[in-house]
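Problem: given the chain below (269 residues), write out its structure.
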Amino acid sequence: MRLLIPQTAAHPPASVGRTAETGVVVPGPAHGADLDGADLDDAALAGLYAYPRDRRWVRANFVSTVDGAAQGPDHRSGSISGPADRRILALLRALADVIVVGAGTVRVEGYAPADIRPAFAPLREQLGLPPTPPIAVVTDSLDIPDRLLTDPRTVVLTCAQADADRRRQLASQVDLAIAGDEQVDAAAVIDALTARGHQRILSEGGPTFAGFLARAGLLDELCLTISPELLAGPAMRILTGPELSAPADLRLASLLEADGFLFFRWLFA
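Solution.
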């Protein structure tokens, strides 16, 4: 995996140099150019994608084809992914306090409690994190796959108008939070996760939920993989739903390449 564009000075995620928090070298403006074109190992990647310290940070991660499809013909993102993309996904999960996902994506993608690649286990230990991050599911309907209910750390974020009996049932199995009245509210979702001590928040979509966060101005970063494929057809883009009130301005933070896949980090202005 090669760094094509070094990390910009606009937002180094942590201090340049070896940090006490991560124990890895964090590329930054002072020496990012030294990595330009280099084959990055896991430690260098972890530094590049490190979260900022001492503040909440909401990161969204997506894969898309060159023509903008956020899902393959099977309506799943995995079919447009590849080994390099899965490596970055595994790293982003390893760095996160919590993974938040819309219930539709949870059902389509077949979510289960998260696991972490063994290679990234020491990273979580250095960050003082538990071995795996919990999954947080955003849902009005409370239609959640049973296998996510096997982890009592699973967070269900719903609204006050959701079915009361189903809410009580889920609350006896997992961590349930009310995040809105008639429907789920984006800010209330992020506030509920923050209240549980989750500062490093990774959103894995889907496109409807990502649009929900973007319209509320709650995204700090977008990690976007461009898969070297063309699909055409009616597939969703990475954000769907009503238009933003104004276009969101993004700054390119870094760009990687591996096996024809491009890995962008975009920062929200």
